[in-house]
């Protein structure tokens, strides 16, 4: 779902279902990706129903994480590296072949009460049957879309994590979410900085100006090297579940259950030990690391934004 150039599927009868990335000399076997996310449906007609299914399966199968930064590894924008991270190492985000355009967005920071100054988050605009949709499989935690969002200003669109909407502000679009009240089971985390009690908040802003991968190169470098970056200070791994999401933020492991009928989300939070780290990553997130993880767990007063919605 994440990607830049327009693309399509090869013939489904082909012995090697592959995706060619122009100008890169890379052929990516989409069957590996489909297997990775558990997709067994029809893919020869890229329609809305298929996109919805793939979008949901992706966020349920591939964690949103920044663990490479805390394993002494470098994150790149190279598509072959990304595909290898997704499929072979059970990590990352991929690209599907729809009529899509890559966009950039500026994430809202609660501590600053404003959007960041530069595009640091990649999203896609997808056009299907004349309608425009926003796809985003890589925001994670409690702000994650499970399905594409129709690009209609002011339209409330209900999903499992709450009510999402996009607002046309003229010079930009704002993506926002209205969540639910939270119930924290462990009293020790009742006032945790990870939990936000603000019900409605902007998530990011964006324009419809097409962006290429190179547009994000500097931001990619900054996010993993700037000492004031959230990603250098907090190690994050999260994945959506049929009932909510799971997250490991620093040393804090959380299982969150959505309960829309009661208008509440239930947070089961605890700190883990070093001995539990590898087991939790493997069993709860299907993540296996090549290098040793040094969890980041620093609090940023000025730039920190609440990770859980």
Automatic annotation (TrEMBL):
GO molecular function terms attached to this record: arylamine N-acetyltransferase activity
EC class of the enzyme, as a word: transferase
Stretches for region Disordered: 1-20
Keyword Acyltransferase recorded: yes
Keywords, comma-separated and alphabetical: Acyltransferase, Transferase
Superkingdom of the source species: Eukaryota
Keyword Glycoprotein: no
EC number: 2.3.1.5
Family affiliation: Belongs to the arylamine N-acetyltransferase family.
Protein name: arylamine N-acetyltransferase
Organism: Neogobius melanostomus
Source organism phylogeny: Eukaryota, Metazoa, Chordata, Craniata, Vertebrata
